[in-house]
Specification:
mainly alpha; 6 helices
Length: 77
């Protein structure tokens, strides 16, 4: 199993957030793979913050390159 799905299961997220995130990453495997590259270097709080940002509407409305770049910037910050 992906470390992203393990993180979603183990972090302090609501059941709705977990469901939404699983669906998002199932439908956007490229973004899941990018998150896997650096998730192990983040604290739980940083991962929760990043995953909650992924749930924001702007990630659903921008193109894959822009969303991917924004997610990377958010995790680095």
């Amino acid at each position: 199993m992906s470390i992203v799905y393990d993180a979603i299961a183990g972090l302090d997220l609501t059941p709705d957030e977990k469901s939404d995130l699983r669906a998002y990453f199932v439908n956007n495997s490229d973004k899941r793979k990018e998150l896997e590259l650096f998730i192990s270097g983040c604290s739980d709080d940083e991962v929760v913050s990043c995953l909650r940002k992924v749930l924001r509407p702007e990630f659903a409305t921008v193109g894959p390159v822009a969303a991917s770049s924004q997610m990377t910037e958010d995790l680095v910050l």
